[in-house]
Specification:
about 190 residues; alpha/beta; five-stranded parallel β-sheet; about 30% helix; about 20% strand; elongated
Length: about 190
Amino acid sequence: MRTLFNLVRLLIAIVTQLPFALFYIFASGKLKEVVKIDIHANALNSSVLPPPVGFAALCLLLFDNQYFKSLYCHRIRRMRLSQLLPHRHFLLEIPYDVRIGAGLKLDHPFSTILNAKEIGCNCRIKNNITIGNKNDDESLRPVIGDNVYIGAGAIIIGNISIGSDSKIGAGAVVTKDVPPGSVVVGNPIRFL
């Protein structure tokens, strides 16, 4: 019975998400590799998904995970026809020019704005995050390194860099550079 349920769920996911998933088929090799890494990063922590496998896993993630769908739509946005697809962003805002590395994991990013110059590979971002510019100047945006964890409610603002393998604690307000491998908490930030 469980197998039948999973098969029906997979068929529904493929039928309903086919317009979105077709862009994966026609994407460039580099975009496909990034999406494969995203699928793997997001499917590993899911109890309802089978092990990450190609097109079926993509359709299931698009069907089950609204945050993955927002990230995926951000990635395919450069493909002209993708702009015809209707998509709600679920209170997650990612401006068009943000460069995002492979493997980004968004954990329930309600009320989250990711307005960075660049976000590195394998980052993990929680809810209520603000990453943005300073004084409404788009050139003054942060650069986030690889393998960075950003806790709930953190604010990262200005022309700063967050070093790779750093951890930003929940509620931290970061307005200055964070060296690689650091742990920061509080407002104003303290290094642990």
